[in-house]
Amino acid sequence: MPYSTPLVANDAVVLGLLVLVLALVFATSSSQRPSFRKFYRYVPSILLCYFIPAVLASLGIVSAEKSRLYFVCSRYLLPACLVLLTLSIDLREVLRLGPKLLTMFFTGTVGVLAGGPLAIIIVSRFSPETVGGQGPDAVWRGLTTLAGSWIGGAANQTAMKEVFGVGDEIFGTLVAVDVLVANLWMAVLLVLASNSKWVDSLYGADSSDIDRLRRKMEAYRAEVLRIPATADTMKILAAGFGVTALAHLGADYLAPAIEAAAPQLGRFSLTSRFFWIVVIATTGGLILSFTRARRLEGAGASRIGTVFLYLLVASIGMKMNILSVLKAPGLYLVGLIWISVHAVLLIVVAWIIRAPVFFLAVGSQANIGGAASAPVVASAFHPALAPVGVLVAVVGYALGTYCAWLCGMLMRLAAPM
Questions:
Q1: pTM, entire model
Q2: Residues 6+ apart with CB under 8 A from 247
Q3: CA–CA separation, 413 vs 347, rounded Å?
């Protein structure tokens, strides 16, 4: 069945299907049956939350192109999730994690900057037509949108499309490359997360600061834990969606105002509504963490936020059509080489500075996935660590468009004439 004509087109049915998938994954991953315990020892449950919707999309059962679920999840549930995950955070303890986390983030950025031109040079040695082309559909031009997506997110990707005048055909193909390659790399990070203690011990990384933060947040949750009443749940939803409303209101005003007054700031994503939604929601959650609203954690604020996050995860997975690799295998090879440069550089620097694998994973995903997936990878280490991914991802949004533009210039020089 063609990808553009899904078997299930009604979003109410698609939502129910995705929730059933999530329920199945969580039910089996928490099961005490030996077969399930053995399976999930090697396969992270969150990976299935991506992969099963991807299989459904690849088989033509559902289609992200025909659904608005991702838009709803990313614009409404994600900001609410960011608020609920950050309102219980101890910001002082996060800052005590030290400079290694930011070092790994910026290493990831450099890996993306260098990976694009290197991938073009390598592929052009044996298949110059794969990375050639002229005009709007020149491959190097289209790859600038991949750079934007991998240093910040979708807002930066769209900005690069406009800045470099990328043709719709090459853009559509590279969106598929982006989704598949980025999710394959995320799968690797999730596997690393499930084996983080072994990986850290392999090269003597010190994860004591991370463990201290995790224990402190767990202790706080245990201290304020209570059986939630309906009023508690309503307060949690009010905090999440109330700040989300303010984030949308602020974004609707700030983005066009900045674009009119100083359009050059667009290179820092300051003219993107989505950027401001993420920043205001995260800031709102941090402000609430200094108030009595922090005690909503005891009634399950982060638990509800995690539910929102997994709905987003499933909707992202639905965007990945595994069979699309057959359409342009050469460009997928470019993407795989590119992400490999990013990965190798991160691994080398982590080894040199003895950075825990948590810093490597969050530093990478804050670039490659942004605020939509950095907290997912962080929570794979422990749910209490999800806010760390949120905070680092905001830095990626600020740098994304500028660094992607620089990467585009380098790829233009590397592309065959």
A1: 0.69
A2: 79, 276, 277, 278, 280, 281, 284
A3: 27
